[in-house]
What we know:
The protein is mostly helical. It has one domain. It has 3 helices and no strands. The termini are far apart.
Amino acid sequence: MQQATSVNVTRKSPSFYGTAILIYALVHFEEFKKLLSAEVHKSMKELGQMREQKKALEHQISDLFALKAKHGPNSGPNVRVYLSRLRQALIVGA
């Protein structure tokens, strides 16, 4: 029993090389965290820009549909109701 306890104690105390490897791994881990954080930040910024572009395009599309409904050959009350519902769906879906 005492032999098992002494083996466990000696295994728990790190050697010089074990400590050096741990420090080396932590340094690389911190570097990786910084790089990953920069990439995530860049991706989130691009995502925000795409979201704004999407909103602008949806608004332009709904304006074009409204213009077509107002001046097109099939301009009637049913088309206007449909287009207003479509515009609301696009706004809610964003």
